[in-house]
UniProtKB/TrEMBL annotation, chains A, B:
Keywords: Aminotransferase, Pyridoxal phosphate, Transferase. One of its GO terms (cellular component) is mitochondrion. This is (S)-3-amino-2-methylpropionate transaminase. It comes from the Eukaryota. Pfam families: Aminotran_3. Residues 1-26 are annotated as: Disordered. GO terms for molecular function: (S)-3-amino-2-methylpropionate transaminase activity; 4-aminobutyrate:2-oxoglutarate transaminase activity; pyridoxal phosphate binding. The lineage of its organism: Eukaryota, Metazoa, Ecdysozoa, Arthropoda, Crustacea. The keyword Transferase applies. Its EC number is 2.6.1.19, 2.6.1.22. GO terms for biological process: gamma-aminobutyric acid catabolic process. Belongs to the class-III pyridoxal-phosphate-dependent aminotransferase family.
Length: 505, 505
C-alpha cells in the first residue's frame, strides 16, 4: 500500500491549524484519533488531483460532445470520463484531467472506481455468465437467487423489515412501492382481496372502483423520480415537471431549518410543528374530498431539493401521524441508503419507535428495490411484476460491496471522515461567512449553501477547475456525495481546495 | 459442430408429411430450401429436451421456492434455472430438467443462453471494467459512448429515426417517451419554450398550466408497462391495474380479427374501419372536453394482450389520423423489437409512408430506450433525465449481439424458421380444430389460441412436462418467443411435442 506523500501530510497540518483557528466549538479529536488512516483503501490511487487542460471540459470532451449530440440530446453532459483509468476516489477525464470525485455518479458508486475486489469478481466464470444471462427474475430466478438475496440485500435490511422486492432503478422502485401502498390500502378498506367483477371490469378502463381515487402525500422540495407516478410526488425543480400531466395529490411543507441548529432551536421546533400540522390538515382535507391519503412518502434528507434535513422528532411525529390516519409511511432512501450517512439507512438515525412500512433504495445499493413490512405483501401473483425485476449481476456485485464495507469498516470510516469534513467546512464557513453558510450533514452526506445561486455555481465550477468534482442541489447548495472509501486524507485535499476557491471568490 | 442425430431427421420427415396432410394451402419449399441448417448455431447445444423429474417444477425448485418466499413475494415464480448449464435454446432447471425454451425470459434473450461470442466479450479487461463502473450516463458518459451508440442502437435504428435516448427498462422507456410527447405537444401549443413564471410555479404543485390536462390514446388489450403513466395506457389484465389510481385517458378498440385471415377479409376490413372511427371520435371527444390527445401509443402486435395483430392498412391509417390531429404516433416495440418478426422492427412490415414519431424498445435490445424524430428533442437539458439512463455494459453486449445477428443472418433465419413454425402449427390446427385455432404471427413471433383458457393452460403445462418451455398471453393464447438462434431443427422438436400434446388432450 502507498504511504501518504509530503503533500498529504502538509495538507493534514493545514487542516488542523484551520480547525483550531475556527469558532472553537469544533474539537480536534478526530484528527488525533488512532483510527486515522493515511493509506489509501484502494492501492495505487493517485495522491491528488492533476489538471492538464486550461479549462474543463477540455477539447477532447468538447469534441466527443459534438459527436454525441448528433445522435442523443446532450445538454446535460458535463464531461466524458475514462473509466478504465479512473481509480478509487479519482476520475480521469478524456483530456487526462484527474479529479478527486466527491460526487460519484450522483452518489451511486459505493466503492469508487475499479475497486480491486470488484474487478476480481470477474475472474469467476460463473459470475461472468451472470452478466450475460439476464433472467426474468419474477418467474425464472437462478439457482442461487435466494442465497444471493440473503447475503446481500437481506444482510443489510433495515431493522424490522424482512421482505424485499427488487427493481431495476430508483424510479421503478418508488413507482412499485406506491402501487404496493395503494393495494394495501384498498385491501384494508375492503377487508379482503376477493375482487368484485365491477372492480375487475372498471380498472380495465381506468374507472372507479377498480382504479380508485387515492393519493399519496409528498413534500415541497421532494425528489422521488421522474416517471409519472413518482413525478407527481417530486417537487424539486420545475424543469423536471413542466408540461407533464400530474395527479392532484397533497403536498406539505418540509421543514426548512435555520443554521447553525444549536442557535435556532426554538424557531426550528416551531418549523417542525407547522409542517406536521399541515400534514395532518392535508390528510383530513383530502380524505374529506374523496381522495384519501393512502400513504406519506418522504426522503430522510431531501437531496435533489437542496439537502434539507428534518429533525428526529419531525420524523417520529410524522410516522405517528401516518399511523393515526391509516396511511403507509414510506421512506425513500434512494440517495441516502447504502452507507453515506454513516449508517446503512439514514432513517436509523431517527430512533423511530418502529420500522417505516416501506423503504425504497437504488444508487449505492446498485440495484433498485424496496423493503416492506409483511402486511404489505400482495395477496396475488403478478400484481407487482415486470420482465426483469432487477438483475442478479447487480446483487452479486452488491454482495461483494457489502463484504468490503464490513471488512474495511467503511461505515465507521464514513462517520469519521464526515466529522472531519463537517469541522473543516464549519471552520471555512466561519472564515468566509460572506460566501457560504448552513453547513449540514450526516456522515459524508454533507452540503453547504453558497450565499446565492450564482455563488454556488461559481464554487462548484471553480472546485472543478481546481480538480475537485462536486455537485449542486436545490437552489444554492453544494453537495458532497463521496464514496464510502473516502478517507481523511481525501477530505483534507477537498478542504484545502475549497479554502483556496473561497479565498479567491 | 454437432450434426443432427437420427431423431432430428426423423422429426423433419414427420413434419414434412404432416404439412402435406394439411389443408393444401401451405407449401413445402421451406423444408426443401438449401438454406436449411441442420447444425446448431451454438456449438454444444443439446440435441433435445430431457426431463428427469416426474413433474415440473421438481423437488429442488419447490424447495428453493420455499426459501425465496421467506424473503420475497414469490407467487409468480415458475422454476429455478441453472443459468450456468443452460445453453443456446435450452434451459436447464435446478432439478436437471432440460427444456427447449421458446419463451426466452419473456422474449428478452436475443442469442439464447451463454452464447460463445458474448462469453468471449468478458475476456477484454476494458469490458470487464464497464460492468463495475456504472456511470451517470446523462452527465458523465465514458470516452467510447458516442461510438458504442453508433455501433449498436444507431446501427439498427428504424429508418427515418436518427435520435436516441437510452433508459434502463421498458417501463422507463415508455414513461419518458410519453413525457417527451407532452413536452413536444405543449411546445407546439405555446409556439416556443420560454416558459412563463406561472407555468414554472404551477407545475411545482401539479396544477395547470404547468401540469397540463393532456392525454394519450391507448387501446384495449394494450400492455405498455406497469409504472403509473404506462399503467394508465395498459389494459391487458385486471390484476395488473386493480387498486392503482389512473388518469382518465381515452381507450380505443384494437382490431380483433377472425382467422384464417384470407377467409374473413371483409369482416376484418370492417373491424379496421370501426376501430379507426372510434380513435378519431375519441380524439375529438377528449379535445372537446379540455384534455387534448397529445399522442397515440400502440404496440405493432399486442403481445401481453393476446398477440393481437393489426393490418398494414390499420397502422397506415392510424398514423394518418395522428398526423391529421396533431398527435404524436408512438410505436411500442418493447416486445416486438430486436428481430423476432424477421425485421429489426415490426413496424417495418407496415409500409408506413413515414417513420413513426417515437419507437420505444427494451427486452431483446438489452437496454431500454427510444428513437425519435429530431423535432422531439427537448429544448432544455434535464427535462428527460435520471441517474443511470441505461447502462454502457448493456450497449457493449448489444453491439456484439448485432454483429452475430448480421454474421449468422439471424433475421433471415427467423423469417425462415417462422415459416416452418407457421406451416406446422397451421397443419396441427387443421388436424385438431377442436383444440386450437387462430394461428398468427410474423417471423417467430407466433401465437395460436387454445379453444378456451383452460385448454390453453393445459397445452402450456403439458408442453412444459414434455420439455418445451412456452408461455401464455391474453385469455387463451399460447405464445412463442424463441431466440433469434432458433433454427428449423428446433422448430421441428417443438412441432413434434405440440402434436403429441394435442393428440393426448
Amino acid at each position: 500500500m502507498r504511504m501518504l506523500g509530503r503533500h498529504m501530510v502538509s495538507g493534514l497540518q493545514r487542516h488542523a491549524s484551520r480547525t483550531l483557528a475556527g469558532t472553537g466549538v469544533k474539537n480536534q479529536t478526530t484528527l488525533a484519533s488512532p483510527d486515522l488512516k493515511v493509506e489509501s483503501l484502494v492501492p495505487g490511487e493517485p495522491s491528488g488531483p492533476r489538471m492538464v487542460t486550461d479549462s474543463i471540459p477540455g477539447p477532447v470532451s468538447q469534441s466527443r460532445l459534438k459527436d454525441l449530440n448528433q445522435i442523443q440530446p446532450s445538454q446535460s453532459i458535463q464531461l466524458f470520463l475514462d473509466y478504465d483509468r479512473s481509480l478509487g476516489n479519482y476520475i480521469v477525464d478524456v483530456d487526462g484531467n484527474q479529479l478527486l470525485d466527491v460526487y460519484t455518479q450522483i452518489s451511486s458508486m459505493p466503492l469508487g472506481y475499479n475497486h480491486p475486489n470488484l474487478l476480481k469478481l470477474l475472474d469467476d466464470p460463473s459470475i461472468v455468465k451472470a452478466f450475460i444471462n439476464r433472467p426474468a427474475l419474477g418467474a425464472f430466478p437462478g439457482a442461487d437467487w435466494p442465497e444471493r438475496l440473503s447475503n446481500s440485500l437481506m444482510a443489510v435490511a433495515p431493522p424490522g423489515l424482512k421482505t424485499i422486492t427488487t427493481m431495476a432503478c430508483g424510479s421503478c422502485s418508488n413507482e412499485n412501492a406506491y402501487k404496493q401502498i395503494f393495494m394495501w390500502y384498498r385491501s384494508k378498506q375492503r377487508g379482503h382481496d376477493n375482487f368484485s367483477q365491477e372492480e375487475l371490469d372498471s380498472c380495465m378502463i381506468n374507472q372507479e372502483p377498480g382504479s380508485p381515487q387515492l393519493s399519496l402525500l409528498s413534500f415541497h422540495g421532494a425528489f422521488h423520480g421522474r416517471t409519472m407516478g413518482c413525478l407527481t410526488t417530486t417537487h424539486s425543480k420545475a424543469i423536471h415537471k413542466l408540461d407533464v400531466p400530474a395527479m392532484d395529490w397533497p403536498i406539505a411543507r418540509f421543514p426548512l431549518y435555520k443554521y447553525p441548529l444549536e442557535e435556532h432551536t426554538r424557531e426550528n421546533q416551531e418549523e417542525d410543528r407547522k409542517c406536521l400540522e399541515e400534514v395532518e390538515d392535508l390528510i383530513h382535507q383530502y380524505n374529506a374530498k374523496g381522495m384519501p391519503v393512502a400513504g406519506i412518502v418522504i426522503e430522510p434528507i431531501q437531496a435533489e431539493g437542496g439537502d434539507n434535513h428534518g429533525s428526529n422528532e419531525f420524523f417520529q411525529q410524522l410516522q405517528a401521524i401516518a399511523k393515526r390516519n391509516g396511511a403507509a409511511f414510506l421512506i425513500d432512501e434512494v440517495q441516502t441508503g447504502g452507507g453515506p450517512t454513516g449508517k446503512y439507512w439514514c432513517h436509523e438515525h431517527f430512533d423511530l419507535p418502529e420500522a417505516p412500512d416501506i423503504v425504497t433504495f437504488s444508487k449505492k445499493m446498485l440495484t433498485g428495490g424496496y423493503y416492506m413490512k409483511d402486511e404489505f405483501r400482495p395477496s396475488h401473483g403478478y400484481r407487482i411484476y415486470n420482465t426483469w425485476m432487477g438483475e442478479p449481476s447487480k446483487i452479486i456485485v452488491l454482495e461483494e460491496v457489502i463484504k468490503v464495507v464490513k471488512r474495511d469498516n467503511l461505515l465507521e470510516n464514513t462517520k469519521n471522515v464526515g466529522e472531519i469534513l463537517m469541522q473543516g467546512i464549519h471552520a471555512l464557513e466561519d472564515k468566509y461567512p460572506q460566501h457560504i453558510n448552513s453547513t449540514r450533514g450526516k456522515g459524508t452526506f454533507i452540503a453547504f449553501n453558497g450565499k446565492d445561486p450564482a455563488t454556488r455555481d461559481k464554487i462548484v465550477g471553480n472546485l472543478k477547475a481546481a480538480g475537485i468534482h462536486s455537485g449542486g442541489c436545490g437552489e444554492q447548495a453544494v453537495r458532497l456525495r463521496p464514496a464510502l472509501i473516502f478517507q481523511p486524507h481525501h477530505a483534507e485535499i477537498f478542504l484545502d481546495k475549497l479554502e483556496t476557491v473561497l479565498g479567491q471568490l
